[in-house]
Design goal:
Protein name: tRNA/rRNA methyltransferase SpoU type domain-containing protein
Pfam families: SpoU_methylase
CATH architecture of one domain: 3-Layer(aba) Sandwich
Distance between the termini: 152 Å
Keywords: Methyltransferase, Transferase
GO molecular function: RNA binding; RNA methyltransferase activity
Structural class: alpha/beta
CATH superfamily of one domain: SPOUT methyltransferase, trefoil knot domain
InterPro entries: Alpha/beta_knot_MTases, Ribosomal_eL30-like_sf, rRNA_Methyltransferase, SpoU_MeTrfase, tRNA_m1G_MTases_N
Order of helices and strands: HHHHHHHEEHHEHEEHEHEHEHEEEEHEH
Radius of gyration: 50 Å
């Protein structure tokens, strides 16, 4: 106890400054409480011992700040620093914001905010994105102009067509849109064989688009190409315009004839037509429809009627599947069901090709094998075939039943005018392809009708 009072008395009387590492030690607290300069009220100092503190700017404070190696400081500086640190008083003209002006902002942020920001991941373009970008740059950023040239080997003039040409846009819209072709009354045929078929059928050639001039040498009507516009485009452009996976590199644009029936009649003048009408119900696949038209032209039926819901007969894929048969058989439609009686004959017999339900004799249809039907029992045969998935709809069967009843009222009642043709299948096969089934039935019809004609 005596030693403690001795230390307190010594600290109060001595003028020696004692420096401690921590400001919260016992000696520091005693010195703050007992020292005479700190006994004055807040905001005031004894004038004899503590002079008034002048206003100091941050720059002057940095210049007057003693070095860290100085062994000791004055009592006034120590008291001001201690009061600032412990918030004992506010020194005039001294603000914390001024002290923090020279401190870098990065040092004031928390440690978690000073972490390095991760760079954004670099997006690597896929192959599809690269091809799309190349197509767009080729289409919209081509600075070149179209150029007219002459080929000495083929002896034809052609145009190197660029994407910024108006004709490039017109051809792209014409080839890619069926509505534009119908409005402009144009037909587009792709490939050497189909172009030759259209030319031989009598269509008027308007333009040829190719990606290689050597392909023109395969056309049989080379001498007549002098008056036809020929456009040379890039291979990438031809792949965009083509409806096929691998483009043949040759597209022909033909004018649609004003009278297609007259053109078909002229092309089929050497063949005798069978009294058969083929009605297609809900044939949605263009390739199948093209094959059906091709078979009908080969058998030489009288006409082909497409009901609404079928693919369009002048679709590019349908034209390719038909292989030129569109110009050799009359095609009507797609039409509505109520327009069907306009193409029927009073004494016709109706044959529906449907294997979905065996022994199905609804609406008066007789179920028979396709080769056991008497196709010569009527003056005309109407063969109805449906899509591969759904077959002939019930509405069409009811409509055919009504047509048969109307015919019986006008003519003498006849038996067995409505047949359901059945094709027997083996090995668990449920059905044939639409075009294949039609071929089987049509050629059996042709055999029966030709045999009847020979006997009479």
């Amino acid at each position: 106890m005596i030693r403690t009072w001795k230390v307190m008395r010594f600290c109060a009387q001595t003028s020696v400054q004692i420096r401690f590492n921590r400001q919260f030690g016992v000696a520091s607290c005693l010195q703050q409480k007992v020292a005479q300069p700190l006994c004055a009220p807040r905001g005031a100092r004894v004038s004899e011992k503590t002079p008034e503190v002048p206003s100091i700017t941050p720059d002057e404070r940095v210049q007057k700040q003693p070095a860290t190696t100085e062994p000791e400081r004055s009592t006034t500086e120590w008291g001001a620093e201690d009061e600032l640190l412990n918030n004992r008083k506010s020194i005039p003209n001294l603000k914390v914001s001024e002290l923090l002006k020279d401190v870098p902002r990065t040092k004031l942020r928390p440690e978690r905010e000073r972490k390095a920001v991760k760079p954004a991941p670099v997006h690597r373009k896929t192959a599809i994105e690269k091809d799309t970008l190349q197509i767009l740059q080729h289409r919209y950023q081509d600075p070149n102009e179209s150029e007219e040239r002459y080929d000495k080997a083929l002896k034809v003039r052609y145009t190197i067509l660029q994407s910024n040409d108006v004709r490039h846009r017109d051809l792209m819209m014409l080839i890619g849109s069926r509505k534009n072709r119908e409005r402009e009354r144009m037909l587009v045929l792709e490939g050497r064989r189909l172009i030759m078929d259209g030319y031989n059928a009598g269509l008027r050639l308007e333009a040829i688009v190719t990606s290689d001039l050597k392909l023109l040498a395969d056309l049989a009507f080379k001498p007549k190409l002098k008056g036809c516009p020929i456009f040379l485009v890039k291979r990438q452009t031809m792949m965009e315009w083509s409806s096929l996976t691998t483009s043949p590199g040759l597209i022909g644009v033909f004018g649609e004839p004003s009278n297609m029936s007259e053109l078909v009649t002229r092309n089929a003048a050497g063949s005798k037509r069978l009294p058969v009408t083929v009605v297609c119900d809900n044939i949605r696949e263009p390739n199948n429809l093209g094959s059906i038209i091709r078979t009908c032209a080969a058998v030489s039926v009288r006409e082909v009627i497409l009901l609404k819901g079928c693919a369009h007969p002048w679709d590019l894929k349908c034209l390719r599947g038909g292989a030129g048969a569109h110009f050799r058989v009359p095609i009507y439609g797609p039409i509505e069901t109520y327009q069907l009686p306009e193409h029927m004959r009073p004494s016709s017999i109706f044959v529906v090709a449907d294997n979905k339900k065996p022994n199905d004799e609804r609406n008066g249809f007789r179920w028979k094998h396709y080769d056991r039907i008497d196709y010569a029992s009527g003056d005309h045969v109407v063969l109805v075939i449906g899509g591969e998935t759904y077959g002939v709809s019930d509405d069409i069967r009811s409509f055919i039943h009504q047509l048969a009843q109307d015919g019986e009222q006008q003519q003498q009642p006849q038996q067995d005018r409505k047949f359901l043709a059945h094709i027997p299948l083996a090995n668990g096969v449920e059905s044939l392809n639409t075009a294949s089934a039609l071929s089987v039935i049509l050629y059996e019809m042709r055999r029966a009708l030709m045999q009847l004609e020979d006997t009479t």
